[in-house]
Amino acid sequence: MHGKYSGKRCKVPWPFATREMLVTSFELELPELDAVVPQEAETIVKETIHGFNASHLPPPKEGVIRMEANGGFILQKISDEKCYIRAVIHLDLKLDLVPTWVINFLGRQVVGHGFRLYLKTVSSVKESKVFQECIRQQPLYSRITLQMLPKSSHENGYKS
Predict the structure, then answer these.
(1) Cα(104)–Cα(18) distance, integer angstroms
(2) What are phi and psi of 141, to 5 degrees?
(3) Which of the residues 13, 111, 130, 154 has the least number of beta carbons within 10 Å of its own beta carbon?
(4) What crossing angle do the helices spanning 129-137 and 100-127 adopt, rounded to 10°?
(5) d(CA 95, CA 80)
């Protein structure tokens, strides 16, 4: 993370200006809660954040508005068959003309559609032979997988 950031720029319809966001992120494990925070993201607006020096960032291009965000998601094991996914985000779109209730409504709609798309993707990965082979060869987030598996799997020699 130190010195790395991600950027995304999107064009929006008139009368709004193009928006962009630069974020830094990290992973946090909470074994005492059987939880993992795979992606905690924060917009880089301060001089230093999480050891990242913001003075090396390019300034926004003319006419582009830089949004601010702070949030992430949490995976928490409830039982051997279930886990809880929680998403928390504070997002400032820099839209003074749009009422807060409209932004909140649209945000809830996007999160709902995003979660349904997430479930569909997980299901297709789970059923696909191609993805299963890739997962066996190069497991992503193997520590998370190991933590979310039943304790008996650890004892039976599951290897990430």
Answers:
(1) 20
(2) 55, 45
(3) 13
(4) 90
(5) 43
Which residues 6+ apart lie within 8 Å of 22 measured at CB?
5, 6, 7, 43, 44, 57, 66
| pLDDT at residue 120, rounded to an integer | 85
How many residues does this entry show for the chain? 160
**pLDDT, average across residues 96-101:** 77
Which DSSP helix (H) or strand (E) runs through 111? Answer: helix 100-127
The first and second tokens of residue 4, run together, are 């790395």
The first and second tokens of residue 27, run together, are 């992973």
User: Can you spell out the DSSP letters for 58-102?
Assistant: PPPPTTPEEPEEEEEEEEEE-SSS-EEEEEEEEEE---SSS-HHH
Q: Which residue has the tokens 């987030």?
A: 141
DSSP state of 122: H
Q: Which domains are present in the chain? A: 6-153 (3.30.530.20)
Indicate the residue type of 54. A
Please report how many Cα atoms fall inside a 13 Å half-sphere around the Cα of residue 80, on the Cβ side.
6
Distance of alpha carbon 86 from alpha carbon 145, whole angstroms? 17
pLDDT at 3: 46
Tokens encoding 24: 């830094």
